[in-house]
């Protein structure tokens, strides 16, 4: 439960280099929270999280998950925010200023955010101009860093103020 705690949902950013399992972990967290009756808004721009076919997710993303796919994740996140009253908005691979802006808007409305980004560590992520507003505003209280050592995958969880 590094996202859901007694005090509510905590916005979390999942980071790692490519091919470490960010998308899979994000999907798994979305599913688990949805089965715990949290309302999830999933902005699935490339169809990798839900795998929608004719409006039906091909991956199990949980019973309380609304999915918008086939449009830019920043636009999808804002549509979900306005129309579905989610407890949490999830999006994979934030890369653009528009993605960061959508995350900031969601957080300012009291909605938790679960997102992923390519980075080989927190220091590298903090150096990128695009992500500056996320750190300046303190939106993500936690960062989950994925890695592989000796062929084993593992996740290290950091509180942002400790990183």
Write the layout of secondary structure elements.
Elements: E1 4-5, E2 8-9, E3 12-16, H1 22-35, E4 40-44, E5 65-69, H2 73-83, E6 88-91, H3 97-108, E7 112-118, H4 122-127, H5 132-137, E8 142-149, E9 152-159
Parallel strand pairs: 3-7, 3-8, 4-5, 4-6, 6-7
Antiparallel strand pairs: 1-2, 8-9
Helix pairs in contact: 2-3
Largest sheet: 7 strands, mixed
Number of strands: 9
Separate helix tally: 5
Shape: globular
What value does the average pLDDT take? 91
Distance between the termini: 20 Å
| H-E string | EEEHEEHEHEHHEE
Strand order of the largest sheet: 5-4-6-7-3-8-9
Structural class: alpha/beta
Please indicate the percent range of residues in DSSP E strands (runs of 2 or more): 25-35%
Spans with pLDDT under 50 lasting ≥5 residues? none
Can you give the helix content as a percent range? Answer: 25-40%
The value of Rg in angstroms is 15 Å
């Amino acid at each position: 439960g590094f996202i859901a705690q007694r005090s509510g949902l905590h916005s979390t950013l999942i980071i790692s280099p490519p091919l470490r399992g960010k998308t899979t972990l994000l999907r798994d967290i979305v599913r688990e929270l949805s089965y715990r009756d949290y309302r999830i808004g999933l902005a699935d721009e490339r169809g990798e999280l839900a795998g929608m076919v004719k409006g039906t997710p091909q991956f199990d993303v949980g019973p309380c998950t609304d999915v918008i796919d086939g449009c830019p994740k920043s636009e999808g996140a804002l549509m979900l925010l306005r129309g579905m009253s989610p407890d949490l908005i999830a999006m994979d691979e934030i890369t653009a200023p528009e993605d960061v802006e959508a995350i900031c808007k969601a957080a300012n409305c009291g909605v938790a955010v679960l997102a992923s980004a390519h980075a080989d560590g927190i220091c590298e992520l903090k150096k990128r101009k695009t992500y500056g507003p996320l750190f300046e505003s303190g939106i993500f209280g936690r960062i989950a860093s994925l890695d592989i050592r000796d062929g084993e995958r593992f996740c290290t969880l950091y509180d942002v103020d400790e990183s």
